Amino acid sequence: MEPLKFTRLNDLPVPADRPRAGAVDPAPLLGVWHSTNRATRGIIKLILSDSDGNFTVRAFGACEPSPLEWGTVVGAAFADGVGLRAGVGFRAFYEFGFMQTTLAAYLNKRILVVDAYNTFRDGSGRLNYFSRDHFYQ
Amino acid sequence: MNFTRAEDQLTAAGGQAGGGVVDPSPLAGTWYSTDKKTRGISKLILSADGGVLRVHAFGACEPTDCDWGEVEGAAFSSGVGSAEAMAFTAFYDFGFMETHLAVYLKGGILVLDSFNTFKDGSGRSNYFSREFYHS
């Protein structure tokens, strides 16, 4: 059997933490998540679902008079280690045409911390920016 | 002007459009893990080369660190009207796995999230990790 390739020690299973075949279970991430900041100018709500085995993300941007629905995209769920299955983080990507947003999120004591990396492509002069929102269920 | 949320819009407080280029130089330098026993990423060398962010990461390996090589990063500021970088993303494709780095600067500490996806059928779970760096 070929030795496992790795890029850092974390890539290697520890003896008590052997890899188990199977995808990361997104269950701990699923549900409706509301921003802890009712006055947020960023993302106001997320709906995370498991649709036929696909982890999906549906985001809503803060906007007046009502939130802007970004639609549903397939995301990727991540565990806390190579031998674990419970989802503790996710990534998702939105292509809006005039801009792109990558969401990089993780769970911290049942608060979902969502970082957004936003890139403009419309020549508007707006600068690519980072933002962070926190969510509860 | 198109937008997806209120913060995409320029406001009086948010400054004016600055030509669309974030200056990566505030991120430049050598960044060391605050955890000397890390099993993750031990060191990052960030450079601003002609306005382009370059990321050189080193994984914690024994007896010496694994050199991941240098890739181009994407720099981000704190808002649509600010040109000063305070975050970046970078992507490494190792063949058998991929790593997305999502990183931001807070109070002089670099906070790094890595999202790691295996492609080698080894049964290892895709995993997330978070680490902190000082310069």
Tell me what you see in this structure.
The complex is a heterodimer of chains A (137) and B (135). Chain A is an all-beta fold and 137 residues long. Chain A is 0% helix and 49% strand. In chain A, β1 and β2 form a beta hairpin. The mean pLDDT of chain A is 93. Chain B is mainly beta. Chain B has an eight-stranded antiparallel beta barrel. In chain B, β5 (87-93) and β6 (97-106) form a beta hairpin. Chain B is globular. The chains are: A mainly beta (137), B mainly beta (135). At the A-B interface, β5, β6, β7, β8 and β9 of A face β4, β5, β6, β7 and β8 of B.
State the distance separating the first and last CA atoms of chain B.
39 Å
Range of strand content of chain B? over 45%
For the biggest sheet of chain B, the summary is:
8 strands, antiparallel, barrel
Radius of gyration of chain B: 17 Å
> Order of strands across the widest beta sheet of chain B?
1-2-3-4-5-6-7-8
Number of helices of chain A: 0
- The beta-strand count of chain A equals 9
Structural class based on helices, strands and sheet pairing of chain A: mainly beta
Query: Biggest β-sheet of chain A, characterized?
Result: 9 strands, antiparallel
User: Which class of secondary structure composition applies to the elements of chain B?
Assistant: mainly beta
Helical proportion of chain A?
under 10%
Radius of gyration of chain A over all CA atoms, rounded: 17 Å
Contiguous runs where pLDDT drops below 50 for at least 5 residues of chain B: none
Level of helix content of chain B?
under 10%
Largest interface: chains, residues each: A-B, 63 and 62 residues
